[in-house]
Amino acid sequence: MKSTFIVILSLLALTACDSGPDHTRGIEVVNGTCKVCHAQGINGAPIIGNKKMWGPRAEQGLETLIEHASNGYGLMPAKGGNESLTKEDISAAIQYMLSRLPE
Fold it and tell me: Which carries the bigger pLDDT value, residue 45 or residue 8?
């Protein structure tokens, strides 16, 4: 449990900046693509802001989360079904969603 907390805090530190182009792009990508599933947990997608659902995923690290989102994972299609997304877009979206976790 302690290691989970440390990993989540580390990821939150990476995403702590609530302004700037990456944050803005993250919001845009989440609202335009990710929110469809991540707002309601469709097909097991971790709900934005749900620490219990995101915890085990956050433990895997940002690079793994980016890889899963880029290539598809489980029922999630590659790039959330939006082939126009870049790795940077996906990274910004994941960092934004992680930043929404309660402390």
Answer: 45
Letter for the amino acid at 20? G
CB atoms within 10 A of CB 79: 21
Distance CA 24, CA 13 (A): 17
Query: How many CA atoms are closer than 13 Å to the CA of 39, on its beta-carbon side?
Result: 8
Domains of the chain: residue spans and CATH: 2-99 (1.10.760.10)
Whole-structure pTM value: 0.81
Quick one: pLDDT band at residue 22, thresholds 50, 70, 90? confident
Exposure b/e, 31-56, CB count within 10 A at least 16 = b: eebbbebbeeeeeebbbbeeeebbbe
